[in-house]
Amino acid sequence: MYRTLEAHGAEAIAPRLLDVIHLGATALLFLEWVRPVCAWPWRDVNAAGQVLVRLARLHQGPWKTGTEEGMLWAYDHALHQAGQATLETLQRVVREQGAVQWQAAVPMTTRLVAALSEIRGVLLAASPHAVWIHGDMHPGNVIMRRGAAGVEPVLLDWARARPGSALEDVSAWVQSLGHWEPQARRLHDTLVRLYLLTRGLEPVLSRDFRRLYWVAGACNALAGALQYHLMTFAHARTPTQQVKTRTMVQKWLRVIRRADASWRAG
User: Fold this and answer.
1) In terms of pTM, does the model score above 0.85?
2) CB 36 within 8 A of CB 47
3) Segment 142-192, tens digit of pLDDT
4) How far apart are CA 109 and CA 75, in angstroms?
5) Which of 161, 144, 157 lies closest to 58, judged by CA?
6) The CATH number of domain 39-265, selected from 2.30.110.10, 3.40.390.30, 3.90.1200.10, 3.10.20.580
7) Domain boundaries, the chain
């Protein structure tokens, strides 16, 4: 992906790839060090919007290098495995941690995990053409740096880049940021519309669009985000840690709840 972006003049989206050393089946990537303008720029909702503009640039591709086959991976299978692991972790936390308040989320999560293959098919069919997505959008994977055009976002950690639905990236970014920043949560729809406008699409959040948006969010939750916070909650040692991690689990379960309701409504 780093070489592909550079070949198409879009290298500013990611750190520059300086070198690669292959050691058997392992590859060591040497990347440009990116100096952030500040540790947490996301209190400014305009910065969050700039990230969506960057994502629109990424999704508008196409990125052609002749190496697409080598960049593909069996993501549907990996997602199902991650979803099943998330469900088992949720059941274990409810059973062993006494988190009975999350018991109602178990059947919702069970239904979504069972439907993941169909959900992915619907998401991909809704796109006019396949797009390359970053695949792991959250505040920890974006840095704002000072570039030639001013302060601009740089996307980090491209290990999960793949063909997919643009809504996977959009929902991951807007939802995960909203979990931390109240202003981003309040301006949720405004941020989503900014992305659509940048793509040249109608900025209308119709019922069908929201259905796709929330099930894309469920795919992100089941890909690892929800399991991470469940495990962090299970290992919390202080009341402060427990409150913080419980809050994050509840926010991701809200995504699951919205996705389950949207999916079942058809």
Assistant:
1) yes
2) no
3) 999 998 778 999 999 999 998 899 999 999 999 999 999 999 999 999 999
4) 19
5) 161
6) 3.90.1200.10
7) 39-265
